[in-house]
Amino acid sequence: MRPVGKIYNVSELTQQIRLLIEGGFPAVAVEGEISNFRPSSTGHIYFMLKDSGAMLAAVMFRGRLRSLTFTPTDGQRVVARGSLSVYSQRGSYQIICETLEAAGEGELLAKLEELKRRLAAEGLFDSARKKPLPLFPRKVAVITSPTGAAIRDILKVLGRRSAGVPVVILPAPVQGEGAAALIAAQILRVNRYAMADVIIMGRGGGSLEDLLPFSDEQLVRAAAASKIPLISAVGHETDTVLSDYAADFRAPTPSAAAEAVCAAREELLARVQQCRADAEDVLLYRVEKIRLLLERFTPESMEQRVHALLQPLLFRFDDAKENMINAIRSGAAENRGRLELAGAVLESCSPRETLKRGYAVVRRAASGGVLRSSAGLAAGEELSIQLHEGDIDATVKEVRNAPARRG
């Protein structure tokens, strides 16, 4: 044996191996058969993956179990995806699973996702295409296995909630080869002969392979083309198939589909009573609103309103009146002063004021004409002389003509 340069202790060697394994395989996918499956009290699951030549320890922690779509069992072939880890205390390595799927399931899911995208692009899943469920169906068609639990659940709910509504059962296999074509044919038959007002299509829970017929393209197209409202009730609440997207209504379980089809009498009565209460509330509210509005039109309130409207106008009128009176008074006082001044000027120019200064007005006694010149007078002519105070009658004794004025 060739001598080695360094001697490792167990921990050092295990650490080196751990670095090599965990660094070299950060993400792996391993296919194998489950063996020695054992859940732990902490919620984790431990098992072995094996094939004909080797075994590999595996663990899936509790937080990742939510992604499981099936219940793992011994003997089941699966694909585990995760990372490799070395358990130093035992000197063993294991795979820590991030996801776990049945062998072939990943490829199948990818195909279903591709079909879903293609059908969605054609508009088969558009909400605008979906029809409302009838409130009072006269007849219900059920497409399912006549021996499965789904039909018993549906009939039980319909009998309890809507006794007397006829149910047409159209038998069809709900899994296996040819199931999708037969279910699609039953959908077409119900539509062709108008056999019901609503269709329930469904089955109980199962594995991905069991539910595969309800994701078949032929069945999905038949569901989307149905003129009669169709309910897809396949599997449990967590199960989803492509017919759920094409149907007019998706129910989580067959029982829920039956409940959605026929409203219970108690529910209808409650709805009627609620409508009545709502109508009464609306009427009472409107009556009270009208009463409050009418209270605003009593004689007293109307008088107050008129006063409220007229008061500002009256204030404005009073202000305008006062301003007008003041303007008239001011103008009258100004005009009175001017008139008195004009009267004084006029009075100073009157004959009376002239006579007051010693002048006199001489008139012919015979004609009363005012003399402005001595011309034309003759001795002995009678005159009337008006003084400031009193009059004098005189006789012309002599006339002296005034010299002519120069221009």
What does this structure look like?
The chain has 407 residues and is of the alpha/beta class. The chain folds into 4 domains: 10-106, OB fold (Dihydrolipoamide Acetyltransferase, E2P) (Beta Barrel), CATH 2.40.50.140; 137-262, 3-Layer(aba) Sandwich (Rossmann fold), CATH 3.40.50; 267-306; 355-395, no CATH class. Helices cover 41% and strands 20% of the residues. It is built from 10 helices and 13 strands. The chain has helices at 10-24, 105-121, 149-161, 179-192, 217-225, 242-246, 254-261, 265-295, 299-348, 351-356, and strands at 28-39, 45-50, 55-60, 77-87, 92-102, 140-144, 167-171, 198-203, 230-234, 249-250, 361-364, 382-386, 391-395. The protein has a 5-stranded mixed barrel with strand order 1-2-3-5-4. The chain has a 5-stranded parallel beta sheet with strand order 7-6-8-9-10, with helices on both faces. Strand 12 (382-386) and strand 13 (391-395) form a beta hairpin. Helix 3 runs parallel beside helix 7. The longest helix has 50 residues, at 299-348. It is elongated. The model has no long low-confidence stretch (mean pLDDT 85).
Quote the beta fraction.
15-25%
The SSE string, one letter per element, is HEEEEEHEHEHEHEHEHHHHEEE
Tally of separate domains: 4
Q: What's the architecture of the largest domain, going by CATH? A: 3-Layer(aba) Sandwich
Q: Tell me the number of strands.
A: 13
Low-confidence stretches: none
Helix count, per DSSP?
10
Order the strands across the largest sheet as they lie in space. Answer: 1-2-3-5-4
**What is the CATH T-level topology of the largest domain?**
Rossmann fold
From the N-terminal CA to the C-terminal CA, the straight-line distance is: 176 Å
| Helix-residue proportion | 40-55%
What is the CATH domain class of the largest domain?
Alpha Beta
- Spatial shape: elongated
Q: How would a crystallographer describe the biggest sheet?
A: 5 strands, mixed, barrel
Structural class: alpha/beta
Radius of gyration: 61 Å
